[in-house]
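Q: What would this chain look like folded?
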Amino acid sequence: MFSKVIPVLIVSIIWIASGLVIGSAIANLEGDAGFITASIQGEGDTGF
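A: My prediction, written as structure tokens:
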């Protein structure tokens, strides 16, 4: 059971981390106001 759970956790962590990196890059392009707006409109920590 754990052999299936661990890869899913790893992928989830990478997915969230990449989402944060992309969100930060977008924030740098749009400015802080754009990032705050995207965070409010987004779902979860990824900012999507």
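The mean pLDDT is 73.
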